[in-house]
Amino acid sequence: MSIPDGWINNQPPNTIMMTRRQAIKTTALASAAIATIPAALAQEGTGLKPPIAGALLDTAPAPFTLPPLPYDYDALEPFIDTETMHIHHDKHHAAYIANLNKALAEFPDQGNKSVEDLLKNLDAVPEKIRTAVRNNGGGHYNHSLFWQMMKPGGGGEPSGDLAKAIDSNFGNFSTLKEAFSKAALGQFGSGWAWLVLDGGNLKIAASPNQDTPLSSGQTPLLGLDVWEHAYYLKHQNKRVDYIAAWWNVTNWDFVASRFNPGSRPLAA
Ligand code: MN
């Protein structure tokens, strides 16, 4: 398979299908291109930056790096505030990556795995660093997805095959939204609410801490971070207000791309 450089044309390669070598090369190409890409190529008026290969899920092995946000820090205003985005991405997500790399440094053979590989089979991770990988690898993976699961001008409802599957599994979109919001509100303490693909069925799930559905054999399609760090600056104790605001930035194109792998790896 030749290496597509189509991310410039909003058609990045499906990283699931890529070898690590290809992923590393693509990421390197993207990093080189970011520095030179003219601002005019950014999607004017949308608040979105051109798709960046580094923002895709990292299929490269350790050391892991912080993927840039696929939009500006203030792009999700007024629903998600700028300061929260700065701290959440630059501090929290970065810390998960630093701690994951630190844990893996002790076991170089483990560092040859992608973060997905590590989380899909935590039992294969040495016991000494298993909890660190579960927490910090989960933090890296979940947040890498989370940034892409939102976009300025998002919200609304999904369409196409995903919409049909939602109707088939939940009856209609409103029921899904209600069940997902309930899971997000009901998660005690820190954690996530999820829409997952499980054996061909769509399901609502919740997980504590940074546990990811990937470790339970499920594919996370849409996730909402309900750690207080995700909303406390703007909403304080009112998680319910954060959840309501967040539905205005959901990136259904990205969710659909995960539901139909290969169709559209990164929504533009
Ligand atoms: Mn978070």
Helix content: 40-55%
Q: Give the N-to-C terminal Cα separation.
A: 23 Å
What CATH calls the topology of the domain at 82-259 is minor pseudopilin epsh fold
Low-confidence stretches: 1-45, 50-56, 263-268
CATH architecture of the domain at 82-259: 3-Layer(bab) Sandwich
Beta percentage is 5-15%
Mean pLDDT: 82
In what order do the strands lie side by side in the largest sheet? 2-1-3
The tally of beta strands, per DSSP, is: 3
C-alpha-based Rg, rounded: 18 Å
**What is the count of helical runs?**
9
Q: Output the CATH class name of the domain at 82-259.
A: Alpha Beta
* Assembly category: single chain
For CATH, the homologous superfamily of the domain at 82-259 is named as: Iron/manganese superoxide dismutase, C-terminal domain
Ligand types: manganese (II) ion
Largest sheet: 3 strands, antiparallel
Overall geometry: globular
Given helix and strand content, the structural type is mainly alpha
Order of helices and strands: HHHHHHEEEHHH
